[in-house]
Amino acid sequence: MPLAMQFESSRDGRIKSSSRVRVYLSYHQESGLAAKERYIYDCASERAVFYETDNYVYPLASSEVAYRVDGDYLFCVKTERIAFWILGKQLYGHIGNGELTRVPTYHYGD
Fold this sequence. Notes:
Helices cover 11% and strands 44% of the residues. The protein starts with 6 loop residues before the first strand and ends with a strand. It is mainly beta. The strands form two sheets. Strands 3-4-5-6-7-8-9-11 form an eight-stranded antiparallel β-barrel. A two-stranded antiparallel sheet has the order 1-2. It has one helix at 19-30; strands at residues 7-9, 15-17, 37-42, 48-53, 56-59, 67-70, 73-76, 82-87, 90-96, 99-100, 106-108.
């Protein structure tokens, strides 16, 4: 997991990386570790709300892990239950009993 993560968002909701994030990313690039980094946006507001790296998802306002990625699913770290299903670049909410939301809740920005 990252040592430190800090984010700033611009007026349009896009992310501006801070120096801590650049240090973390350059460390992984230099050490040969290929970390996959990407932002997750809210479909309703088009604002970035999460950041994914190393199969963990963090809220932008916190450095605590909220979800872990396992295959096509995001699991809530606190409950260990399925929270979202990943279909392409879209994330659908998991209601329970195998049911999903009809429209995507979030999407990847890449």
